[in-house]
Specification:
Blueprint lengths: L1 H14 L1 H22 L1 E11 L5 E7 L2 E8 L1 H5 L1 H4 L2 E4 L9 E6 L5 E2 L5 E6 L2 E15 L5 E2 L6 E7 L2 E7 H9 L5 E2 L2 E2 L7 E8 L8 E3 L2 E9 L2 E13 L9 E6 L2 E9 H5 L7 E4 L7 E7 L8 E5 L2 E8 L3
Length: 322
């Protein structure tokens, strides 16, 4: 029965070979058309990393990223942004003084791109330079302040002042010998009106490759210090704080009757004041001694200090008008 079926198929093909050839051609065209519609290509930049191994520190990966052309469905290619694909290589075997190795990138090294095929990698080989791991203690520089407070100036304090950096031994020795300090991330004080604290990450030295920093953050205290200004007002009249008592010589008056007032405080507050806003009072009615002066400001005005020149006056009787 099976032999008869085979003979019949051969007889049909010999009699209808042209139809069979056309059918085969149509099938091939349909196959490649469907494949082209469901299989797309996309070229992305993919990072190259190396698994961590105790006692080994990377100095450089050249290049640190490569161009990869992927083939797959449109939906799989759209998910590349969320997957964050990268090549992950096994660490090299370090010699006594470190060294350099060349690694060929393959499909099995790719992470985060399952279901996609690699069409091309450019370049296909990367160079890995490595060294034995070492550690050094570095000083931490003050964080850079960005912007200006709404009022006053910003002063910074932070802790700790040093950190341990672990990485390539030769790199760390060179950086430490050059007196390099660790730089924290900048702190934004734009528009601030109150003091605050903030944890700030420590940035690795620019020439160090993937170092480990302990601790990774510092605690920063920003104090907003108001900037004080001074303003003087001349010719402010002196008033008596207590009712004047009768005097055989006449009414009691202050000598001198006009004084200078010196105010210290925020410049914005001082700019809004005039001489008529100030009240200077002589606190007493004893004509035998110097009487201290006090300055009174409008309600709601707060200043650092308010002093008069001179600081006291003498109360003297003014002769009565005949």
């Amino acid at each position: 029965m099976r032999v008869d079926l085979k003979i019949r198929l051969l007889l049909w093909l010999s009699a209808n070979w042209l139809l069979a050839l056309i059918s085969l051609g149509v099938a091939v065209v349909v196959y490649f058309t469907v494949r082209e519609n469901i299989s797309y290509t996309d070229t992305r930049t993919v990072a190259v990393t190396v698994d961590h191994e105790d006692g080994l520190a990377l100095t450089a990966i050249r290049p640190a990223s490569v161009r990869v052309t992927f083939r797959g469905s449109l939906n799989e290619l759209r998910q590349l942004d969320r997957r964050d694909p990268r090549f992950v290589l096994r660490p090299p075997r370090a010699g006594a003084a470190g060294g350099t190795e060349h690694k060929e990138l393959r499909q099995r090294h790719l992470r985060g791109a399952s279901g996609l095929r690699i069409v091309m990698i450019d370049p296909p080989v990367v160079e890995i330079t490595f060294d034995h791991q070492g550690e050094r203690e570095f000083a931490i520089a003050p964080p850079v302040l960005q912007g200006r407070p709404l009022r006053g100036r910003a002063e910074v304090d932070y802790t700790p002042r040093t950190a341990i950096v672990r990485g390539a031994r030769l790199q760390l020795d060179r950086l430490h010998g050059a007196g390099i300090s660790l730089q924290p991330e900048p702190v934004n004080v734009e528009g601030r009106v109150q003091s605050f604290t903030q944890r700030v990450a420590i940035m690795p030295p620019e020439d160090a490759w993937q170092p480990e920093i302990v601790p990774a953050e510092i605690l920063v205290r920003i104090d907003i210090i108001p900037e004080s200004a001074q303003r003087e007002f001349d010719g402010v009249p002196v008033r008596l704080a207590l009712p004047t008592r009768p005097s055989p010589g006449g009414t009691i008056v202050a000598a001198p009757p006009l004084v200078k007032v010196r105010l210290t405080g925020l410049s914005e507050t001082l700019q809004g004041l005039t001489t008529n806003d100030l009240r200077v009072y002589a606190d007493g009615d004893d004509t035998a001694v110097e009487v201290p002066l006090r300055v009174f400001l409008p309600a709601g005005i707060a200043l650092d200090s308010a002093v008069t020149d001179p600081p006291s006056v003498r109360l003297t009787p003014r002769p009565a008008t005949p």
